[in-house]
Write a structure and sequence with these properties.
The complex is a heterodimer of chains A (109) and B (173). In chain A, helix 3 packs across helix 6 and helix 4 packs antiparallel against helix 5. Chain A is mostly helical and 109 residues long. The longest helix of chain A is centred in the C-terminal third of the chain and has 22 residues. Chain A has one domain. Chain A is 66% helix and 12% strand. The radius of gyration of chain A is 13 Å and the shape is globular. Chain B is of the alpha+beta class and 173 residues long. Chain B has two domains: 60 residues, Orthogonal Bundle (Arc Repressor Mutant, subunit A); 77 residues, Lrp/AsnC effector binding domain/regulation of amino acid metabolism (RAM) domain (Alpha-Beta Plaits, 2-Layer Sandwich), CATH 3.30.70. In chain B, the strands form two sheets. Chain B has a four-stranded antiparallel beta sheet. In chain B, strand 4 and strand 5 form a beta hairpin. In chain B, helix 2 crosses helix 3. The two termini of chain B are 18 Å apart. The chains are: A mainly alpha (109), B alpha+beta (173). Chains A and B meet through strand 2 of A and strand 3, helix 5 and strand 6 of B.
């Protein structure tokens, strides 16, 4: 992975580009992530309800593709969505996918 | 109407004119005057004065959104804020065209309550996620979609005729 691309994925974002965690339409939890690392950490903190809400709306994929500009991770999240995980299993799989991807980026940079 | 030290005092005639206008703002000065037993020029002068001092903010139409086929949704949004930022958040919400009303309320925490309209649930969510949640000082948001409206009216001090008498009596005391 090119250094430029890596630093773009790992950069700290301005608040207007952060990912804001909701549990349903218009219900903001107060949790947000301003970087990929923080996003990964927040996956373990927010409720499963919030994860299900965003995953099945395609919000994670959209943010990852458009803001982090990481197409590879977007595909991984799409695959996860297609497996229809829910509850704790979803949280675990999501966290695992993100940490593995994070380790891969870090090791190549 | 009397203005002293920036304080506006309305007399019973002013209140009756306002009452008439709240019932039907398209009435002519003559019709209002006849109804109240005063000259149309008095009605004109008093209305102009009340407009100048902002007692009458504007004349508008109340539209039945359902009848014109608009498929808007309305929601009540409660924004919990850091008390230091609440004023700024409330002002920012006032700037958004989809926000119709904004209030602050203090229960256990400081809250801003806003009435919001949107084309559909998705556009409501996009507005809240992109324009409200990122505002500095916003701690969390709760939104309730309105499913049925049972009553909507403007608060009027003239709904109860006894109140008019009360105002008049108080002035005469």
């Amino acid at each position: 992975m090119k250094e430029e691309k890596t630093s773009r994925i790992l950069r700290t974002l301005p608040s207007e580009k952060a990912f804001y965690f909701f549990t349903s339409i218009g219900n903001y939890t107060g949790e947000r992530a301003i970087s990929f690392k923080e996003f990964m950490d927040k996956i373990n903190q927010v409720t499963v309800k919030s994860l299900e809400f965003h995953l099945y709306r395609g919000d994670f994929e959209k943010w990852i593709a458009e803001t982090l500009e990481d197409q590879e991770l977007k595909r991984k999240i799409a695959n996860l969505r297609n497996r229809n995980y829910s509850g704790t299993a979803l949280k675990e799989q999501l966290y695992k996918t993100l940490t593995m991807h994070y380790q891969k980026i870090i090791s190549k940079s | 109407m009397k203005v002293k030290d920036n304080a506006i005092t309305l007399d019973a005639t002013d209140l009756k004119i306002l009452d008439a206008l709240q019932n039907d703002a398209r009435q002519t000065y003559t019709v209002i005057g006849k109804r109240l037993g005063i000259a149309h020029s008095t009605v004109y002068d008093r209305m102009k004065r009340m407009e100048r001092y902002g007692v009458i903010k504007k004349y508008t139409a109340i539209i039945d959104i359902d009848k014109i086929g608009a498929k808007n949704i309305t929601a009540l949004m409660t924004v919990f804020t850091d008390p230091k930022e609440s004023e700024r958040v409330a002002k920012k919400l006032c700037e958004a065209p989809q926000v119709l009303e904004v209030y602050t309320s203090l229960s256990e925490e400081l809250q801003i309550i806003a009435k919001v309209v949107a084309e559909n649930q998705e556009s409501l969510h996009i507005f809240i996620a992109n324009s409200v949640a990122p505002l500095p000082g916003v701690l969390r948001i709760r939104t309730s979609m309105i499913t049925k409206k049972f009553k909507e009216s403007q608060l009027s001090m003239f709904n109860n005729p006894k109140k008019l008498t009360y105002v008049k009596q108080k002035k005469n005391e």
